[in-house]
Amino acid sequence: MRCSDVLLCGSTPWVEAAGYLASLLVFASFCMRTMLPLRIAAILSNVAFIAYAFFDGLYPILILHSVLLPLNVVRTVQMLRVRRIVEQASKGEFTTEPLCPFMKVATWKAGEIIFRQGDYADRIYLLAKGSVRLNEIDLVLGAGELFGEIGVFSTAHARTQTAQAISDVELLWLTEGEFAQVCHANPALAFHFLKLSINRLLANTGRHLSTRRLKPAVLR
After folding, report:
1. What is the chain's pLDDT, residue by residue, as a tens digit (220 residues)?
2. How far apart are CA 58 and CA 72, in angstroms?
């Protein structure tokens, strides 16, 4: 019997245990509702599968999980970075944690227009750093505030405001489809956006009414 065979036979119990552990972790990942624990379980299962496949000579499994391990690590690091930004920006009314796996980062310089009134609306924004003005209602938004939702939810998908960066800003954004996935799993978030949209519409309506009242006074 070759030395490698002896070594392999001697390590069979713990190798089998690694295989069972890997399978258990994969099963656990299917039971998880949030992305971060799922990614961590996936990383641990990759490590266990690599050990199991290497010592048991299962090379297709070894290759597969050697590729999946760095991919899961990269995705987890990206998710943690976005989650950290969101936690720094969020303000107590609701948690934006369910949005983290879907959000991407974008930056604008001071004075730049993020979108104009009438533009096609395909993204919802969360302001992470800096300040933004909604020009038509003269509303200044700070870190942690959401905007751009009214145009995305409207049938016409048209922006109702012009958003301009007052300072250098960092924004997190997600699409309508991604937002729908989050709201399906977290209805409380949908209620928050409903309240936010109504308040913005009331502010916009109030400004238009004030403007109409001022016009007759100017004409007299």
Report:
1. 444 444 444 457 787 888 888 888 888 888 877 788 888 888 999 998 998 888 888 889 889 989 999 999 998 888 887 777 665 545 445 556 666 677 888 999 999 999 999 999 989 898 888 999 998 888 899 887 888 888 888 888 899 889 999 999 999 898 888 877 777 766 666 666 677 667 767 766 666 556 555 445 444 4
2. 21
Quick check: 172 and 129 in contact, CB under 8 A?
no
Distance of CA 155 to the CA centre of its chain: 24
CB atoms within 10 A of CB 106: 14
H-type alpha helices, the chain: 3-10, 12-31, 35-56, 59-89, 149-153, 176-185, 187-219
Strands 169-175 and 163-165 turn out to be unpaired
- Asked if residues 141 and 75 have their Cβ atoms less than 8 Å apart, the reply is no
Burial annotation 108-144 (CB, 10 A radius, 16+ → b, else e): beeeeebbeeebebebbbbbbbbbbbbebeebebebb
What is the amino acid identity at position 2? R
User: Is the CB of residue 53 less than 8 Å from the CB of residue 62?
Assistant: yes
> Could you tell me if 49 and 22 are in contact, meaning their C-beta atoms sit under 8 angstroms apart?
yes
